[in-house]
Specification:
362 residues; VC0802-like; 3 domains; four-stranded antiparallel sheet; 17% strand
Length: 362
C-alpha cells in the first residue's frame, strides 16, 4: 500500500492515518468539517489535499448512520482500488450497500475493537490499535486483493485480525461493548442525585464500573441506533437477572428462615455465574486469564513515584504483569496494585520493603 484516503478524521480515522503515515504511506484526509482534517494533518496524519487519482485504499471512518452513504459516494467516484469502513456495526451498512446495487467486490467491512472515552483527532494516536482485535467481515464477493489491503492496514496498526460474519459481529459487540456502555451509564446515573457523603466513599470498584460512562452520549446514540435489536436482547437477559436478584434480596429481609436461605441461594447463583463469565474474558496476550498475586504499595502523589516503583521491581528482576491505581479520596496518596506471577510476589514484596516502600496487605 502506497496511498490511502481516510474519510472521517475523528479518533479512529486519525489514529489509522497516523499509523499509515508513520510507515511512509501517503495519506489524504477528508472530513465534512475541514477544520478536523486540518487538525489531523497538523498532527502528522497526512495531507488535507485531495488525491490526484484513485488511491490504493479508502478508509471510511464516519458514524454508522452515514457509513453506507460515504462508502457509496467514494465507490461511485472510483476513489480507490479497495474500500473499507471501521464502523462499530457491520450488518446494516453491508445490507444498505447491497440494496443500492453496488458491486461489493472491492469492499470489506471492518471494526477495530479499540477506542477511548475522548473523541476527535486530538485524542488520536498511532498506537491506539496495538494488540487489539480488528474484526474483518468480508462479503461473499470480496476480492482477495481487497482482503489483503485490509490485512496490511491491520498489520501496520499493530492489531490482531479476526474474521467474522457481519451479523455475528453485531451480536457479539452488543454483548461485549454496547451493553456494558449502557449498564455503566445506568450505574453512574445513580450517583447524579446521591448524597455527597455517599459519593465521597467512591472507591476503585465504582470507578471501574463507571469509567466508560464518561463517553460522548451523541456518539453512543449513533452506535446504539445502528444495533438496537441485539443490544435489547442482551439487556433483556440482564433485566431478568436483575429481577431475580431483587426478589432474592427482598427474601433476605424476611423473618422466615427458609425464605432467607432461598434469597441467599439466589444471590449466590448470580455471583457464581458472574465468576464463571469473568473467567472467560481473555487475559494477557489473549490467553486465558492468569491467577496473579497482587502486591499493594502506598504511593505519594509526586512526580516520578510510579517510575521509581517500576524501576525497583525491574532491579529485583520481577516482571509486572498488570497494574492498577486506587486513589485515596482527599489525600495526596494512593495505592498501586502490582500484579505478578504468584511465585514472584514474595521476592517483589521483600525488594520493595528493602527500598523503603510501604506495603499494604492486598
Amino acid at each position: 500500500m502506497r496511498t490511502a484516503l481516510v474519510i472521517g478524521t475523528g479518533l479512529i480515522g486519525t489514529s489509522a492515518a497516523l499509523a499509515l503515515a508513520g510507515r511512509g504511506v501517503t495519506v489524504h484526509l477528508r472530513d465534512h468539517d475541514p477544520a478536523s482534517a486540518r487538525t489531523a494533518a497538523a498532527l502528522g496524519a497526512g495531507t488535507d489535499t485531495e488525491p490526484e487519482g484513485p488511491v490504493d485504499l479508502a478508509i471510511v471512518a464516519v458514524p454508522p448512520a452515514h457509513t453506507a452513504a460515504a462508502l457509496a459516494a467514494a465507490m461511485r467516484a472510483s476513489a480507490a482500488r479497495g474500500y473499507l469502513d471501521v464502523a462499530s456495526v457491520k450488518g446494516g451498512p453491508q445490507r444498505q450497500l447491497e440494496a443500492m446495487g453496488l458491486d461489493l467486490t472491492a469492499y470489506i467491512g471492518t471494526h477495530p475493537m479499540s477506542g477511548k472515552e475522548r473523541s476527535g483527532p486530538l485524542a488520536a494516536g498511532a498506537d491506539l490499535f496495538e494488540g487489539r482485535p480488528w474484526v474483518l467481515t468480508p462479503t461473499r464477493t470480496t476480492d482477495t486483493e481487497v482482503l489483503n489491503l485490509a490485512l496490511e492496514l491491520v498489520a501496520v496498526c499493530g492489531a490482531v485480525p479476526v474474521v467474522m460474519d457481519a451479523d455475528a459481529h453485531d451480536r457479539a459487540v452488543a454483548l461485549v461493548s454496547h451493553t456494558p456502555q449502557l449498564v455503566s451509564s445506568m450505574v453512574a446515573a445513580r450517583l447524579e442525585e446521591a448524597e455527597e457523603s455517599a459519593v465521597r466513599l467512591c472507591g476503585q470498584g465504582i470507578r471501574d464500573v463507571t469509567r466508560i460512562a464518561a463517553s460522548d452520549p451523541r456518539m453512543w446514540i449513533e452506535i446504539l441506533s445502528a444495533n438496537p435489536g441485539p443490544v435489547a436482547d442482551v439487556l433483556a437477559g440482564v433485566a431478568a437477572d436483575l429481577d431475580e436478584t431483587v426478589r432474592a434480596l427482598r427474601s433476605l429481609q424476611s423473618a422466615d428462615e427458609e425464605k432467607r436461605r432461598d434469597g441467599a441461594t439466589g444471590v449466590e447463583d448470580v455471583l457464581r455465574r458472574g465468576n464463571a463469565g469473568r473467567a472467560r474474558v481473555p487475559g494477557k496476550h489473549g490467553t486465558a486469564p492468569a491467577a496473579y498475586e497482587t502486591v499493594v504499595v502506598l504511593i505519594g502523589d509526586r512526580p516520578g513515584e510510579l517510575a521509581r516503583i517500576f524501576a525497583d521491581a525491574g532491579r529485583a528482576g520481577i516482571n509486572v504483569e498488570d497494574v492498577r491505581i486506587e486513589h485515596a479520596t482527599g489525600r495526596q496518596a494512593g495505592l498501586v496494585q502490582l500484579m505478578v506471577e504468584p511465585a514472584a510476589a514474595p521476592a517483589l514484596a521483600a525488594a520493595l520493603r528493602d527500598r523503603g516502600w510501604s506495603l499494604r496487605t492486598g
